[in-house]
C-alpha cells in the first residue's frame, strides 16, 4: 500500500537504516520484528474479509431502493478500498508469508516490477479513498446545514461528477510518485544479480529535490490536510446532531424522515472518526519525520510501517460492519438479498421502498 512508502524498505528499497539509538529506536525495532511475524497473516485475513465486505457494499448500495447521491460516493469509496486490498494480497503473501523463498526468488525482476506497480496502484487508490471520504463528509455537512438547497447541491449528477473527478485528479496528482521510483539492480550476498524498487535518478537530482517534494506531498499533505478537514467537518456534524437532540426534546413528535436523517449522519460520522483514528497517526509521524529529520524517520517512522499498513487496511475493510450496525435500510436490503429466510419482509421488491425525501439523503 502507499502508507507513505513505509513498506518499500522491507521489499528491497534502498533506504539507509542506521543503528537504532535515538527516540528509543532499539525498542521500536524489537516491536517491529515481533509484529512483523504476524503482519502477513493479519493482513491476509483483513484483505480477504475486506474484499468480500466491499463487494457486498457495492451490491447493496447499488440496489434500486438504495440509490442516492451519498450512496453513489460510498460505492466509489468501496471500489477504491477493494482495489487497494486486491493489490495487497499477493504483496503480503510474497513478502511476509512465503518465508521459504531464497533471496534470489524474493528479489526477482518479476516481483520487483510487481512491487513497483503495487506501490503506484495503491498510492493512487488510497488517495482516491481518502478524498472520497472527504467528499462524503462535505456532502453530508451540506445536506444537514442547508437542507432547503441540498437537493440541488447534492444531486446525483453532481455526485457522479465528484466521483469521476476524484479518480482522474488523484491519478494525475500522483505523477510525482511514478517518476520518483524505479527498478534497479543490486548484488546479493552470493553475488547474484537481483532487483529492487529504488529512487530514480531524477529523484536524486538537485539534492534529492523530487524525493523531498514527494515525501511532503504524499506523506504529509495527503494525510494531514484531509484529517484536519475531516476533524472540522466531524465537529460540525456533531454540533448539528446536538442541536437536533435539543429540538427533539422540544418537539417529541418528530417526523420519521428526521430520525432517518440523524441516523445517517451518525453512521457517516462513525466512518469519518474511524478514518481519523487510522490515518492521523501516519500523517503525524510523517510530519514529525519531516521536522525532526532522518533519525526520527529511521528509528520511529520505519518501525511503525507495517502497523500503519495494518491500520489503513482495517479502515478499508470495516465500513461494511458500520453500515450493518447503524443503518436499518442497509441491513434490510442485505437480508433481502442474501438472507431471505431471515428477512422480515421477503416479499418486498425492493425492500421497504423509502419515501423520496429519505432516499435522497440516507444510506
UniProtKB/TrEMBL annotation:
One of its GO terms (molecular function) is G protein-coupled peptide receptor activity. It comes from the Eukaryota. The keyword Transmembrane helix applies. Keywords: Membrane, Transmembrane, Transmembrane helix. InterPro entries: 7TM_GPCR_serpentine_rcpt_Srw (IPR019427), GPCR_Dmsr-1 (IPR053219), GPCR_Rhodpsn (IPR000276), GPCR_Rhodpsn_7TM (IPR017452). One of its GO terms (cellular component) is plasma membrane. PROSITE patterns: G_PROTEIN_RECEP_F1_2. Its main location: membrane. The chain crosses the membrane at residues 38-60, 72-91, 111-141, 161-181, 215-242, 267-288, 308-326. Residues 53-323 form the G-protein coupled receptors family 1 profile domain. It is found in: Membrane. Belongs to the G-protein coupled receptor 1 family. This is G-protein coupled receptors family 1 profile domain-containing protein. It comes from Larinioides sclopetarius.
